């Protein structure tokens, strides 16, 4: 039987890192849905379309072939854009793209197909509430905006991306606001999510706690079936 884990939470709460390690540990496929919204934003950049222009941005979808590989690479129209989708232009504009219903419906359809036949951990903002409401396990990861900014700033430094802490903090605050105030599938925990505050936890501790939650849920599920 497939296992479907939904991992949601605000920007830079560490979802992708956690989902990646969890997937390896538990033999699941990791689907990073944020990467898909980022790929559409990058396509705007490549085609000279303003991401705030909803009509033009949505027209690009017919040319958007986005693939996520098993080793977490993001392929846009045959090109490996794994690194490019993390650049500042994309981070600054992705929330506009993610607020368009047409974009969301286009990507959600693909996300649901991926979950059809695979045991997965899918991370995003609306996985537990909208994309996969029947997921076996729903975890909603939170951390203060300052903690998240600090983590993202450190990560950027390690990658050689030169953005100040203040810029990172402002970007996160702006994205939190847009993500949680959009009309369609906004960022919020599902009623049956388990809230996990990671502010004072290391990556290892968060992964351990997620693993414990998942195993407990699977045990409950198996007992109910049996
Ligand atoms: O997780 P991330 O930072 O790579 O996500 C990029 C943006 O995409 C973020 O601003 C919110 C949006 N997003 C979303 O609206 N729904 C998802 N399921 C995943 C991401």
TrEMBL record:
Which residues does the annotation say bind ATP? 9-17
Subcellular location(s): the record lists: Cytoplasm
- Top-rank EC class of the record's enzyme: transferase
Q: Which InterPro entries match?
A: Cytidylate_kin, Cytidylate_kinase_dom, P-loop_NTPase
Kindly indicate whether the keyword Transit peptide belongs to this entry: no
Q: Does the keyword Nucleus apply?
A: no
**What Pfam families does the record tag this protein with?**
Cytidylate_kin
Q: Which SUPFAM superfamilies match?
A: P-loop containing nucleoside triphosphate hydrolases
Q: What is its EC number?
A: 2.7.4.25
Domain (Cytidylate kinase) ranges? 5-215
User: Which family is this sequence assigned to?
Assistant: Belongs to the cytidylate kinase family. Type 1 subfamily.
List the Gene Ontology MF annotations in alphabetical order. ATP binding; dCMP kinase activity
Instruction: Write the record's keywords in alphabetical order, separated by commas.
Output: ATP-binding, Cytoplasm, Kinase, Nucleotide-binding, Transferase
Under which name does UniProt file this protein?
Cytidylate kinase
The main location class comes to: cytoplasm
Catalysed reactions, semicolon-separated: CMP + ATP = CDP + ADP; dCMP + ATP = dCDP + ADP
Stretches of the chain forming a coiled coil according to its record: none
Which terms in the GO cellular component ontology are assigned? cytosol
PANTHER family tied to this protein: CYTIDYLATE KINASE (PTHR21299:SF2), CYTIDYLATE KINASE/PANTOATE-BETA-ALANINE LIGASE (PTHR21299)
List this protein's GO terms for biological process: nucleobase-containing small molecule interconversion; pyrimidine nucleotide metabolic process
């Amino acid at each position: 039987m497939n296992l479907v884990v939904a991992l949601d939470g605000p920007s830079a709460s560490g979802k992708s890192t956690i989902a990646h390690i969890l997937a390896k540990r538990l033999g699941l496929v990791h689907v990073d849905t944020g990467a898909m919204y980022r790929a559409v934003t990058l396509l705007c950049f490549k085609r000279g379309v303003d991401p705030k222009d909803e009509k033009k941005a949505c027209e690009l979808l017919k040319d958007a072939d986005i693939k996520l590989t098993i080793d977490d690479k993001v392929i846009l129209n045959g090109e490996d854009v794994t690194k490019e989708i993390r650049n500042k232009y994309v981070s600054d504009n992705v929330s506009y793209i993610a607020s368009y219903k047409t974009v969301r419906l286009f990507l959600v359809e693909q996300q649901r197909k991926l979950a059809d036949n695979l045991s997965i951990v899918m991370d995003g903002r609306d996985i537990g509430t909208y994309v996969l409401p029947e997921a076996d396990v729903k975890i909603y990861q939170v951390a203060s905006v300052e903690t998240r900014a600090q983590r993202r700033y450190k990560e950027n430094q390690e990658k050689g991306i030169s953005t100040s802490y203040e810029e990172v903090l402002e970007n996160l605050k702006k994205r939190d606001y847009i993500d949680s105030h959009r009309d369609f599938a906004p960022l919020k925990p599902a009623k049956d999510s388990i809230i996990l505050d990671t502010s004072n936890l290391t990556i290892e501790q968060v992964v351990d706690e997620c693993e414990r939650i998942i195993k407990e849920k699977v045990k409950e599920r198996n007992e109910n079936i049996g």
